[in-house]
Amino acid sequence: MMLIYDGDCSFCAKCAKFGKARLAKPLEIVPWQSLGDLSQYGLTLEDVSQRVYFIEANKVPIGGPRAIFRAGECMKKPWPYLAKEPRQDARGYTSVCD
Predict the structure, then answer these.
(1) For 16-30, what is each residue's pLDDT tens digit?
(2) Are 67 and 48 in contact (CB under 8 A)?
């Protein structure tokens, strides 16, 4: 599993560092700028320039707030509980995650 973020965004980089320090399950947290060929993940430069993505083997990439929720499930307590995706619309998280 992998979380892809914008390494040029200082807020994103700080959040990535925060997440890496709290991982309980294997998850690579990497800036898209270090990946090279994004098409191997089913992504384009336009995609990763606009939002964060969660990647699982053989699955469609998950972008935006839902990617953050999935990454939170890989972290130490209490983050998995807080990362439970709201059953309503996730639009409130969009401005931070997109």
Answers:
(1) 999 999 999 999 999
(2) no
